[in-house]
């Protein structure tokens, strides 16, 4: 049973049940949310809207509880704004306002810097970002393999058994240092990690133990060696799997075509490139569908070309349901009628040797094309910037238009026209790791500014496509199951997906 707060009746029941009088105190901790990083949290409801574009009742309740719990953890009183074009955003904004008013005593922090501006958005504000390939480490893992509650499942070549890997920046220094690094940088970092591990492994070779002093040194170094061994194994395994997927399915070519499509205005070049990729046997159905979806969003008036590309998908094995998604995605994108962004254990010697060989091959094959563009534009695979960045910049300069993003009427909203210092963005319908990376960069670049990002879930492209199917009325999922369950409808699509890395607290 989920209990967000304890009523007087629950406390009375607890007291009456404590017959031995063992309970001396009851403390209140506001941790009713899933924190993924110091600035990122989710509700963990992969499907949040019904086919009337309204919040599912359970999601509305849980989102309200999560947002208010985060506010109480941060000791912040909200100034609430929302996306005017979204009924779901208005519903949630009013629900949060009502809860804050009802629990006024809890929100009486008696400090001058207790204000935070919340902007509640509907995923429809940017349907492009969740459809793009990702090239930062954590985002790639979630897109290509899937992360759920600290775990990543790697399937072997036979696809019969999976290996679970625990992935957390709380306990993994390498991941903490590199989770926002691009793929080329990760390849180089893993090579350095392996080289350092090989050097340290010489200190714990049993054959080097010849005296009591050597034995003491061996036991002193062994715990660190075991931890380093696990770290190397984890990230070499992940990098090897990522590199395999990238290589076998021509994702560099697919991603370059995506970036050209969304960041440039060359219709003929984009169309020809997409047509070529749709006939490439290396390109998976899921990637082919994403390309056509992106094209149909940007060039929705090009009906003849969209039909031609759809026919190419059918030739590639797309089901009727997958084809129907193209029409649904256009309708979903038209809800906003937005314009596209415009460029704006112990290890043996042989095992260690094999680890080094695998890592070296991965580095050699992956970094050449990714590192070459690091001057100027970071690289050709990450030109796109989420629309969330533009909204945040306008918000921080106090240029966000009130008719489009009105305030909820509260006494805190009076006189709230100055630029905020603390900001929370909450996205109904799921956020993406590309948006999380953007928020991280803004926090790092602006000392004294605190931006928090929350959402109903963390999407990858497959889970986002599934939610669009639900929101647009094709099929309604009332059950709030895992994303693994919710993304299985696309025949031939990979189904390894999930939530995100779990942290104990926002700090």
Automatic annotation (TrEMBL):
A Pfam family recorded for this sequence: Sec1
UniProt similarity note: Belongs to the STXBP/unc-18/SEC1 family.
Protein name: Vacuolar protein sorting-associated protein 45
Organism of origin: Cichlidogyrus casuarinus
Gene label: VPS45
């Amino acid at each position: 049973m989920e209990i967000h707060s304890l009523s007087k009746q629950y406390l009375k029941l607890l007291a009456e049940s404590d017959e031995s009088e063992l309970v001396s105190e009851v403390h209140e901790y506001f941790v009713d949310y899933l924190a993924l990083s110091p600035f990122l949290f989710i509700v963990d409801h992969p499907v949040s809207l019904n086919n009337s574009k309204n919040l599912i009742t359970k999601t509305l309740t849980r989102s309200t509880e999560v947002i208010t719990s985060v506010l109480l953890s941060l000791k912040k009183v909200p100034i609430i704004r929302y996306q005017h074009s979204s009924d779901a955003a208005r519903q949630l904004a009013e629900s949060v306002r009502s809860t804050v008013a009802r629990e006024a005593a809890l929100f009486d922090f008696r400090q001058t810097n207790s204000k935070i501006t919340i902007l509640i958005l509907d995923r429809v504000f940017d349907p492009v970002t969740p459809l793009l390939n990702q090239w930062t480490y954590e985002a790639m893992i979630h897109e290509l393999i899937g992360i759920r509650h600290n775990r990543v499942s790697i399937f072997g070549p036979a696809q019969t058994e999976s290996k679970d890997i625990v992935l957390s920046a709380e306990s993994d220094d390498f991941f903490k240092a590199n989770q926002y690094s691009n793929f080329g940088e990760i390849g180089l970092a893993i090579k350095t990690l392996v080289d350092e591990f090989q050097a340290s492994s010489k200190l714990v070779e049993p054959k080097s133990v010849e005296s009591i002093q050597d034995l003491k040194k061996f036991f002193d170094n062994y715990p660190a060696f075991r931890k380093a061994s696990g770290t190397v194994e984890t990230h070499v395994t992940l990098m090897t799997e990522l590199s395999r997927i990238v290589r076998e399915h021509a994702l560099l070519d697919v991603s370059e075509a995506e970036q050209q499509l969304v960041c440039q205005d060359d219709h003929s070049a984009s169309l020809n490139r997409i047509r070529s990729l749709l006939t490439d046997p290396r390109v998976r159905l899921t990637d082919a569908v994403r390309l056509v979806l992106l094209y149909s969003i940007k060039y929705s008036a090009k009906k003849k070309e969209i039909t031609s590309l759809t026919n190419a998908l059918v030739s590639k094995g797309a089901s009727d349901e997958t084809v129907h998604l193209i029409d649904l995605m256009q309708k979903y994108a038209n809800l906003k009628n937005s314009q596209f962004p415009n460029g704006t254990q112990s290890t043996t010697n042989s095992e260690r040797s094999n680890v080094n060989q695998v890592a070296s091959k991965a580095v050699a094959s992956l970094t050449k094309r990714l590192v070459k563009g690091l001057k100027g534009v970071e690289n050709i695979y990450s030109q796109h910037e989420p629309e969330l960045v533009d909204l945040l910049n306008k918000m921080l300069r106090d240029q966000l238009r009130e008719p489009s993003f009105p305030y909820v009427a509260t006494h805190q909203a009076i006189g709230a026209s100055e630029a905020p210092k603390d900001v929370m963005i909450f996205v109904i319908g799921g956020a993406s790791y590309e948006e999380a990376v953007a928020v991280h960069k803004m926090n790092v670049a602006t000392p004294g500014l605190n931006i928090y990002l929350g959402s109903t879930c963390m999407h990858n492209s497959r889970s986002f496509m599934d939610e669009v199917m639900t929101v647009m009325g094709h099929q309604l999922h009332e059950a709030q199951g895992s994303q693994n369950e919710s993304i299985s409808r696309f025949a031939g699509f990979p189904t390894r997906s999930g939530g995100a890395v779990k942290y104990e607290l926002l700090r």
